[in-house]
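Something for you to look into today, if you have time. Could you write out one complete protein record for me, on any chain you like? The space below this message is yours for that.
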Amino acid sequence: MAGGGFAASSAGQEFEAKITPIVIISCIMAATGGLMFGYDVGVSGGVTSMSPFLKKFFPVVYRRTQELEGINSNYCKYDNQGLQLFTSSLYLAGLTATFAASYTTRKFGRRPSMLIAGVFFIIGTILNGAAQDIAMLIIGRIALGCGVGFANQAVPLFLSEIAPTRIRGGLNILFQLNITIGILFASLVNYGTNKIAGGWGWRVSLGLAGLPAGLLTLGALLVVETPNSLVERGLLEEGKAVLRRIRGTDNVEPEFLELVEASRIAKEVKHPFRNLLKRRNRPQLIIAVALQIFQQFTGINAIMFYAPVLFNTLGFGSDAALYSAVITGAVNVLSTVVSIYSVDKVGRRMLLLQAGVQMFLSQVVIAVILGIKVKDHSDDLHQGFAIFVVVLICTYVAAFAWSWGPLGWLIPSETFPLETRSAGQSVTVCTNLLFTFVIAQGFLSMLCHFKFGIFLFFSGWVLIMSFFVLFLLPETKNIPIEEMTERVWKQHWLWKRFMDDYHIEGNQIAGDDLKKNGHANGFDPVSQL
């Protein structure tokens, strides 16, 4: 099955491709979409722990945190649906925007979607920084959410399609790296703005989102469109010219022919979303949806959204809480760099399985310590235990950052064939944003009711997802995207059973290959892994 966005021949040999400056620069500029997403994730938790912000927009929560109003548990100080809506509205808007983003990305290209994302981010930043009431605040977050929907749809596709096979994993993870840098930047900004006298520091925190928003908009204007998108839209000569530029060679004819063939097959599919549900596409769909659900149920976004709030709940002071969030943010960035280095060497499965053990153990120990030390009406978390909790959270964040964080985006982006890739990416992003919204809207209420058990809840999910990886997730390391069907899905002990009808509307795709190898259509000449 032919595909695009990689430099490999159908025989498994790599096409001639240099790692050119234009590829590196384009990927860095595109990945600033992740920077904006990360900043939005990190900044919300910081400002919701700032007293002036709470006093202006959420006076009920402010009175609880100042102990001006009685509460029945330390764990319930921040349990407020309006406060959670401030954080979660972004992801609900992103979920809605993804449907429009899928159409734009397919019909007009990856660059226009990134440009639209940048414009939405700028509008949302202006509204949030100048907010006078809760309505203006929420509308700003909705605009930011629309930006997230467009950016998350276009950027992973752009990165997968423009990168040569041998560094596809590393370049794709630039998106996740920028998310972590955005979270760290937001934590540092929050730590600084919290000290501003006069109570307007939160406006600076929300307004500085304009920096990554501007970078993304500028990047969308400067980067090249992917050859896959150009060929898909019938701009063959332009596609070939871009392919020469990004590969750094004139010898691009074999790869170009692969892209043209992939485009021809893709155009035979009139209803990509309906095609996603066909039997042969179910493995990719199941894997993509499961990875997004599992990524959220590791509990990472609960910690990243609300890190300062969580540390405040555990008895840290406001400054200490923001400082601890900076530490976890720094660990997040450094560990994502580890993933960039190792993902194309040790493989996707190994990183996910190792991280599963590390996350499970750290969450269980955190739950035990909090269960003993942090009660409903006392937060007797001495300095030694407090430091230990931060170390454990950092251990957990590190494991996530080199596994479920980047790989939750990378694996779906490299497994869907071209004819369903845009639709598949749309479903991936929708699922991620839906469950991000669920966690964001529910975490503070869950913390109030589950107390320390919240960490046991997430550790149980980590155990489930680790077994899923062990038995159901195939390795995709160093395999060209157009060869996933033959070399991955048809070789897996379970998923090969779904590959027996690999044709589109009665037209056999791989018939010539099967005849060449002497296999009749429908025969399964594969062995169990």
Q: What stands out?
A: Residues 1-13, 503-529 have pLDDT under 50 and may be disordered.
